[in-house]
Amino acid sequence: MTSVRNCIFDLYGTLVDIHTDEESPEVWRMLAAEFARYDVDFVPGDLHAHYLRFVRQEEAIMLAACPDSSCLPEIQLENVFHKLFALGGVSATEDAVAAIGKTFREVSTEYIRLYDGVPELLAALRQAGKKLWLLSNAQRLFTAWELDRLGLTDYFDGIYLSSDYGFKKPDPRFFRKLLEDQAIDAQSAIMIGNDGTCDIEGAKNAGLRTLYIRSNISPEEALPEADYILTEMNIPRVQEILLRE
Question: How many whole angstroms separate alpha carbon 124 and alpha carbon 116?
Answer without folding.
Answer: 14
